[in-house]
Amino acid sequence: MKTVAWELCIALAAVAGVGAGYLLSESGTTARYPSNVPEKIAELPPGPKTDLIRYGRDLVEDTPRLIGKGAQNPALAYGGNNLSCQNCHLNGGLRPFAAPFVSTAASFPMLVDNRAIALHDRINSCVRLGLNGKPLPEDGREMAALIAYIEFLGKDTPEGVRLPGSGLMPIALPSELPSARRGVTVYAQHCQSCHGQNGEGARKLPPEIGYYVPPLWGEASFNGGAGMGQIAYAASYIRANMPIGVDHENPVLSVQEAWDVAAYMIVHPRPIAPAQGPAEPMIIEELPVSPPPDAAGGPPVQEFVPDRTPRPANAGP
Ligand code: HEC
Ligand code: HEC
């Protein structure tokens, strides 16, 4: 049962990212957070480089149509769901603390445990986990386009600099252990009107593919290896960005509510993580919580956990 006018969600989604949040203090760097990016992209001189940047932007915003599970060209159906990059990387990867792409080109390759992670590895980590799909070919046009777009967004960020607003917003530890049970109430009050009673979100109307509001769990969602499936990242993301349109400087949810609703979101079933966990770095700027040791690791504490024990095929109901 859906209880909201979807027009409202759509309108809110459209304004999210406009206005608040873009003028961030510039601690330790004189580089500025990029502004007027759509206009700058529109003004680029014609040519193959511009085409690539624009295709990259389209891939981020209109992922399901181009490379999602339901891609128009089935040869490019790399995604295993119909999420778009932008469902998480809000506003085309420009929204502060929604893992924006403004410092990404300046941060990669990144050294993690003595292993250099290239930008294409990091992108493919999101394709495999966030999109629950198979990696994009490293030498393909789609990968080149995503990198061109990400480089364009970060063209004024000096090498090695993470602009304020990069990554996810730091969140304090909760005073009480995160409780999915308390999260039920937070979800009903702050999330359900858009994301639905069963976390199913709201699909776009055919022939369009993708979502006005993305699902938060279930088969159509990101898989269990995704950053968003880890409680600390989810709590941080949700507090800074949800309900959509919230100003990260004046969050609607308390710290405790964000952890509780994140716990509620991640105790639900979703596609299982691919066997090989992500070694790719997750960055919550100054998060006071150590990241989970591996992708398969669950949240620190849950009050209830779904039973995911596989049942024998011939078992009764
Ligand atoms: C007014 C509608 C609305 C409300 C209320 C809302 N969301 Fe969202 N949420 C969205 C939309 C729309 C997006 C995708 C934005 C886009 O594609 O630009 C989104 C994206 C997300 C994402 C990232 C995408 C994904 O599939 O994981 C998470 C996580 C999320 N919301 C969780 C929550 C939680 C938890 C709450 C309650 C605290 C909440 N949202 C409240 C509309 C809403
Ligand atoms: C289900 C949500 C989700 C989806 C869908 C998703 N991502 Fe991500 N992505 C994240 C989260 C969470 C992070 C981690 C933030 C961090 O490490 O700071 C991240 C990080 C990244 C980073 C590293 C950014 C940085 O500067 O550290 C890149 C690049 C990236 N994603 C690209 C993509 C692309 C391209 C797509 C679409 C093909 C995509 N993502 C889809 C959630 C998602």
Keywords summarizing the entry:
two-stranded antiparallel sheet, 317 residues, two-stranded antiparallel ribbon, binds heme C, 13 helices, Cytochrome Bc1 Complex, Chain D, domain 2, mainly alpha, 3% strand
Please tally the β strands and state the result.
4
Architecture (CATH level 2) name of the domain at 33-153: Orthogonal Bundle
What's the name of the CATH homologous superfamily of the domain at 33-153?
Cytochrome c-like domain
Structural class: mainly alpha
Indicate the CATH topology of the domain at 33-153: Cytochrome Bc1 Complex, Chain D, domain 2
Q: CATH class of the domain at 33-153, anyone?
A: Mainly Alpha
Unreliable stretches, pLDDT < 50, 5 or more residues? 1-26, 287-317
Helix content: 25-40%
Instruction: Please tell me how large the radius of gyration is.
Output: 19 Å
Distance between the termini: 26 Å
Number of helices: 13
Mean pLDDT: 83
Notes on the protein architecture:
Residues 1-26 and 287-317 have low confidence and may be disordered. The chain has 317 residues and is mainly α. The protein has helices at residues 6-15, 37-43, 48-61, 63-67, 85-88, 90-93, 104-107, 119-129, 141-153, 180-190, 192-195, 231-241, 255-266, and strands at residues 110-112, 115-117, 202-203, 211-213. The chain has a domain at 33-153: Cytochrome c-like domain (Cytochrome Bc1 Complex, Chain D, domain 2). It is globular and about 55 Å long. 35% of the residues lie in helices and 3% in strands. The strands form two sheets. It has a two-stranded antiparallel sheet with strand order 1-2. The structure holds heme C (2 copies). One heme C is lined by residues 9, 12-13, 83, 86-88, 90, 190-191, 193-195, 213-214, 216, 228, 237-238, 242-244, 253, 261, 265.
